[in-house]
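Notes from hallway chat w/ T.B., transcribed later so I don't forget. T.B. wanted the structure written out for a chain they're using in a teaching module, and asked if we could keep both sequence and structure tokens in one place. Agreed to drop them here.
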Amino acid sequence: MVTECIELVEQLKKEGMTITTAESCTGGLIAAAITDVPGSSEVFKRAFITYCDEAKHEMLGVSEEVLRTETAVSERVASEMAEGAAKAAKADCAISVTGIAGPGGGSADKPVGLVYIGIYVKGKKLVVKHVFEGTRSEVREQAVRSAVHSMRVLL
């Protein structure tokens, strides 16, 4: 994963772009992974840890209605989180993550391990849905790896 983060930072530098993160179930792990890279201060703007619905709405502008009707763990919320983070940070790119890391909190419709990753790059949006397996830590680590990889693909 370290290599992917290094490559992401280098790719952003080359393109002259900046990035921000909006994280729920990963609680800042993506921001930490990116900022572990020397020189990341040239591209990394800020991070939003929006663990509760209120924070998603207040900090990122996620629609209260969408949070109520689709819940925080949904494709639409991941998309709105990514776009809202980019706008709030005045960044070119944003990664968002919302999901259920476990071990509890899952349901038949939304099982433990369900994670939506939102990617925003200069107006282009992509949301990737995953159902990861493993412990809480393993789900979160897989989400970080997938998020960084997804951003590199969309860039």
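Follow-up for T.B.: DSSP finds six helices and five strands in the chain. Might be a good example for the class.
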